[in-house]
Amino acid sequence: MKPLYPPLLDPTTLPRRALVVAPHADDEVFGCGGVLACHAERGDPVRIVIASDGAAGDPRKLESDLARVRIAESKAAGAVLGVHDYRFLGLPDGALSGVADLSARLARELEEFAPEVVYGPAPEEFHPDHRALSRALVEAWRTLARRGWTRGRRLLLYGVNCQNRVNLLIETTRYWPKKRAAIECFKSQLAYHDLVGKTKAVDTGRIVNCEDPKVENAEGFAEIAAEQLDAYEGAVGDLLDVLWGAGAADLASTGGMSAESRGRTAGALSVESSARAAAVLEPEWAATAVICTWNKKDVLRDNLLSLRRQRRGFAAIVVVDNASTDGTGEMVGAEFPEVRLIRMPHSKYGACETFNIGFASATTPLVAILDDDIELPEDWLEKTVARMQREPATTAIVSTKVVEPGMPDSYVNSPAVNRERYMSTFRGCGSLARASALREAGGYDEYLFIYGNERDLTCRLLNLGYRVLQYPEVVTHHKNPFGVRMGQRSLYYHARNAWITQLKYAPLEDLFRMPFLVVSKVLLRERSSEERGEISDATGTIGIGKSLRETPGAAWVLVKAAFGVLAALPHCLRHRAPCTASDYELPIA
Questions:
Q1: Domains along the chain?
Q2: pTM of the entire structure?
Q3: How much is the average pLDDT of 242-247?
Q4: Which residues, including other chains, have CB under 8 Å from residue 5's CB and lie 6 or more apart?
Q5: How confident is residue 490, by pLDDT bands cut at 50, 70 and 90?
Q6: Which of 89, 159, 349, 568 is deepest in the core (most CB within 10 A)?
Q7: What does residue 168 show for φ and ψ, rounded to 5 degrees?
Q8: What's the DSSP call for residue 486?
C-alpha cells in the first residue's frame, strides 16, 4: 500500500461475474455505479439485489406508492448503466435488522448466482439498514466460506453515507457521466438531496492524494478475505464503540437504540444469531413462526419471549397485527426488533385471512402456526423439527400437545391425547407445518373467518394425500381456557363452520348421521362426560353444551348460524370434495 492512498485499480482488471447487494434502491449506484458501468460495458453478467422496499424514503409523502416508484427508478438507473438483472426482496424499509433470516436469504442469492465478485455495504455505515445488511452479508460469506464456496471469489464493501476505511480504490473517471445520469433517475430522492453533487464529492475525495491529474474519480472498497472477517468485524466494532459509545458494535443489527433499550436487544441479537445458524446450516429445516394477534399486548410479549428462548432458533418470526389499539404494534417494534411485523389497516380481517397473510410472507420450508396467547418450552422447536425430520414428506403437520387452564386431569392424561397418531385435525395454537403443503392446500378457507379452520384445512390436506401427526412429547401452553370460548360470536362461528366444513368434505353417509350426532353428543352431552375427557378432540366441540347453557340468546344464535349455513351452500357445493382418507373422522363421532 502506498503511504498516501490505497492501491488504485483499473476496473477492467476486475472479475467478470458480479453481484451487488444494496439496502435500498439507489445505494447500488452511489456505492459502485462506476464499477457497474464498467462491468456492463465489458458485457459481464451482473445482478443487483435490492433488500428493502424503499417505502420509508419519502419524509413528505410526495409519492403515494413509493415502493413501486423506487423500483422503477432503480431499473431506469440500471438501464443507464447497462444492467438489467434485478432481484427486489421487498423487505420492510427501515427494519432490515428485524429480518431474522436475512443472512440465509443472502446466502441463497449468492449460491444461486455464483458471482466471482460481490459488492455490498460496509459495517461503518450510519444508516441502520446498511449496517444490518452488511452484518448479514458478512455472516453469509463466513458461512459459505466454511464450505469452501468463497475460494477464488472476492468480497468488496462500499460506503454510501460514510466514507468507510478502504484498502482498494477503483478508478471510475471515464464512467462518471453514466453514474451521474443513473443518479438523476432517482427523482423521488433528488427532491430532498443534491445526490449528484454529494456523490461527486465522495468519489473525488477518494483520490485527494493521487498524483495522476487524469484520475478525477474513484470508488473505494474494503476487500476482506474470508479468513479475516472475524478480525475485521471485531476491529470495526471496537472503533464504533470508541466513536459512538460502548455497545455500538451491536447497533449493526439493532438499527440504533438508546442505552436503556440495549439490554432487551441483546436477547434479540442472540436469538437472531442462533436462528441464522439453524437456517444456514440446515436450510431445508428452517422454520418461520407465524402469529396473528389483536389487542393482546401482554400475552404476546410473553409468547415472543418464549420464542427468543428456543434452543433451536426460528429463522424468522412474523406477527400479523389486526390493527390493535392497545399498543401491541408499538410494543413489538420497540422490544422485539427481530420480529417482522405486518400491521393490517383495520381490524375487520378474520383470523383465517391474517394467518394466510403470515403464511404467504414465510420463505422457509417450515412454518410454526402459533396463537398469540401461548408460551413454548425452550425445546419446542428443536423437538418438533426433529420429529418432522423422522416423518415422510407426506406428513404435512406435526401437532403438539396443548395444555390449557381448566383442562381436567382425565383429559390431560387421556390415552387418546398422549399417544402418537394420525389425526383429522390439528391444534392451530401450536403446530409445525410444511410450507409447501400449506400452499398446495390453499391455506385456511377465508370464508370461515374464524374457528374450525384447522379441521377444514386438514380435510383438504387429506384429500391431497398428506397426513397430520399428533405429537404429545412436546407441550404448548395455551392461556385460553379449555374448550369452546364463551360468547355469542364464538358459538355462532363454531356452529356455522362445523356444518360448512362437513358439507364440503363429509361423505353422504356421514352427513346423514350429523343431526343425530349433534343432538346426542353435543346438545345433550353431560358436563361430567366432558370432564372425564370423553371427547378426544378439543378443537371445536368440547364446551358447546356449556356455551349453549350459559350464552344469553343461544337459541337465536343457533338460528342465525343455520341461516349462515344456508347462505354458505353455494360455497360448499363449489368446494365439495368428500374425504375418504383413512384418517378422516367426524369431529363428534
A1: 11-226 (3.40.50.10320), 266-478 (3.90.550.10), 488-574 (no CATH)
A2: 0.56
A3: 61
A4: 169, 206, 207, 208, 209, 210
A5: confident
A6: 159
A7: -155, 130
A8: P
